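so i finally got all the pieces together for this one. its two components total, 741 residues if u count the protein bits. some of the lines might not be protein, just check the labels. i wanna see the whole assembly predicted at once instead of chain by chain like last time, that was a mess tbh
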Amino acid sequence: MADSDYLYDSARHANSFVTEFLALIHYRELARQMISRSIKTRYKRSALGVIWTMLNPLLTMLVLTIVFSTLFRFQIEHYPVYILSGLLAWNFFASTTNLAMGEMLWSGDLLKRIYLPKAIFVVSTTGSGLVNMGLSMVPLLIIMLITRTPITSSMLILPVSILALTIFAMGVGFILSTIVVYFQDIMPIYEVVLMMGMYATPIIYPPEIIPERFQFITKLNPVYYFVRCFQEPIFKGQIPSLETWITTFLIAIFTLIVGWYIFTRKVSEYAYRA
Amino acid sequence: MPTELNRLEKTPKISNQPVIQFINVGVCYRIPRERISTIKEYTIRWLQRRIRYEELWALKHVDFDIYSGEIFGVIGQNGAGKSTMLKAMARVLVPTEGHIKSRGLIAPLLELGAGFHPELTGRENVYLNGALLGRSRNEMEELYPWIVDFAELEHFMDAPIRTYSTGMQARLGFAVAVAKRPQILLVDELLSVGDTRFQYKCLERMNGFQKEGTTIVIVSHSMDTIRSFCKRALWLDHGHVLDIGPADEVVAAYQKAMQDQDTRLDGQISTPTEQEAQTSSEHLLYDVPKTHPAYPYLIAAINAGYEITYDGGYFAPEGILSRAQLAIFALRCKWGPKYEPRPASGEIYTDIPRDQWLSSYVEENYHFRLTTAPKGGKFWPEMGATRASAVYSIMKAVEPSESSTPNCKGVFPDVPSNYWAAPYIEKAVENGFITALDVKNNLFYPEEPISRADTVTMMVKALRIPI
């Protein structure tokens, strides 16, 4: 698209379901720079650098393994791999959605001064989340080798699981970014919700230990569908059933469409907010 | 700078095609009457239907076209909606009613260097700023050498931008913004940055764009600028278009209205009371909220006769004070608000020639020892003044000239007693003229730049002007 052909009509931008997407494509270089900056600044100042991203889930896993296998005595073979596979999905989801909201809020001053497609913050935090998730795959593979967990070809399905989770996380990110424009209180509230969600999702414990009458909670927890798409191929060496995939993608795409719809409808008001 | 402005052609190729169309545009800020910040509060109020908003129409029923290739001026008093109009053109604000259509790449010269990241280098910031303007990586790689050359910062591109002076940052911001010819250029208060030579370069660049058909929209308080630059102008008043037409005519009508207003006010108020004097100084400080801690001090300074605002009534309280401004403030602190220095010799500082307007101020700063910059070196007038140098200059200005140097106690860990300005800093803090920047950790930060608000506050306190 040549610059001289570019037409702006504020009426189309007021409800910018499509135009926001086109603007996002135009500003892709900004997204790239924001991703590389967030990764650089994250590792620039620490001595161990990139190693931290890999060490972090490892240490979490170590603590959880010690606590839960001695205290609760779960009978799970390769328990560390079970935890890590679930954490991989959960950490990506939690950090991406939380950061997207924060970035939106902290950039308010900039958005009042120059024009930017506002969806860029959700997109760039998701991008850096993906890079970090890629890095945390390394310790996972190491642990699988150490614990002699069979590495099967079913792990090749993981990109599809990542795609589903990414769509879902972006949708939730858009919803939260819209809310945070109106209520900053959502930030601490969401932290609590995330913490509860972490324990309500079978990540550190097997789903079987939940009493029958509480099983419905797992069914109603949308994040668990995505977590399972990571746990099954990695830990069980199985490809999730077609039914699981359909449910998962339906949830993901529905969330993204809803998120994008309310975000693009409400976001033009951002510059008016103090 | 009317002579240079006159060099610009007034009528290049103007087509009949509108590049910017305002179609019955209204911009409304809804300001909640009470501040509601928690969901609980909001829910209760919403259930009670008690959220009340104050509607403030910054623009209302604005309807006009700007044609391709013209230079278009926007004038009006402070708060008339000029900035809102530019923001709407720059797509920052989406209008509440009506709509705006525009055609082509828009370069806003509104917020030069918005989004500059202090820790990143000049080079990284150029790429980041380019991306913020929507440029692709390839484009920026092509434009990069030109940007560095135009900003004249070849040797600084690998230094973090926090080490740049305000002037250098503005130069870099301008260079990135004008690296590529836009179809529309939006300019707020033309040429308020950089030194005269750089301003001239900017004009040349804009002149070149305009010859190639770029449309330029200028908002300015300077009627000379509008008259000599623009073909057509628009007069905004309280969000409404009062007049639009040939620049000369609109400016004349505006100036006449302002004069009438002044004489009307003069007729009404023969002897201004104290309260009315106060309002007139408030008028000069429209960018400083009344709740700003420096506000009473700024009013006191203005009432005492100090000229602290920029042309047009801006004060820019959080702006960095340049060394040149500090020189003027310090001299007037010493000799009174209306003091004019004697002509300069041009032989004290190598970077301040005799014919530069501030040379006489800077040289008298040297003569009265209000600055420690040694003779024969550079004065760096464009650089930001540090907290230490501001304290030094003001303390020297208010003190009897032959008083002895106070003793040092080493109050601040970051101002050791052998620090050059330590005695002055400690005395100023002891007298309450200025406080540590980090009170909790008792750190003064002598090398940090000082804001304009802090400087005037310190002046008023040191001069013991009643507030």
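Chain A touches chain B through 33 residues (CB under 8 Å).
Chain A is about 70% helix and 0% strand.
anyway lmk what u think
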